[in-house]
Amino acid sequence: MTIRRRSLIAMLAAGSAALAFPFAARADSTLDEVKKRGTLRVGVTQAPPWYSKDPTTGDWSSGLGVFMGKAMAQLLGVKFEPVEVSWGNAIAALQANKIDLMFVLDATSERKQAIDFPETPLFWYSLAVLARDDLPVKAWEDLNKPGLRISCAQATTIDTFLTAHTPKADIQRFPDNVEAIAAFQSGRVDAVAMFHPPLLAARQKLGKGKVLVPTPPELAATSVGVRKGDTAFVAWVDKTIAGYYQSGQTEKWYEQAVSDFGLDPKSVPPIMKEMFQS
Q1: 107-141 pLDDT tens trace
Q2: Which of the following CATH numbers is that of domain 125-219: 3.40.190.10, 3.40.47.10, 3.30.428.10, 3.40.1390.10?
Q3: How many separate helices (H) and strands (E) can be counted in the chain?
Q4: pTM: predicted TM-score of the whole model, two decimal places
Q5: Which residues pair with 44 in a beta bridge?
């Protein structure tokens, strides 16, 4: 074998070995990239109280994700850079290195195949109802009455929960949340059930009804999506959001965002698991 041929084989072998390692292992870590770039890129989408753009200035000025993103950027000594995405393309934006993280992404098993999530939950959603102002509701059993009409999106975890816990009620199932809320707006049902974030927007838009979390509370966690394979960045995000949550800062940012959205924070469910009554 000639020296030239041996060199060629060695080069090809080296190239094959490099391809065997994921890109994230060969590139700078996210923390290094953020510091070099001077910005922390946070995915944002118009969805109060999580993200809210001021229509007069075009600035992303409110929302839990905005407040937390700015605080995390400050911790790293960089600027907050909002990057507009949609819920549907946020994962693709992470994979394409267009954003560094996205708040309020639920850590489903399907999503975990594409991106990573910190171990600590960002906060907790509660299954809630937007009910008539004159409807007394403290427990799920208060809704379990013949003739009481409840709407929900069909074939969802909410549908399953209502079927099990309010079998005596008239459960009216609709193709999606929009139609379920429209049924409440028109007075065709007495309450609409779903996890509480969309109910906040519905209450603000409709100007009627009350958002309640019947006992015992049914809770689900949400999280922060980050690019796959960067364990150091995942660990930093995990430690940071855990600190915000444990200090109560996450709840304070949420209450500020709710207030900016035009609702009284005392009239809506909290997002800390410890604040729900069992």
Answers
A1: 989 999 999 999 999 999 999 999 999 999 999 99
A2: 3.40.190.10
A3: 11, 11
A4: 0.80
A5: 84
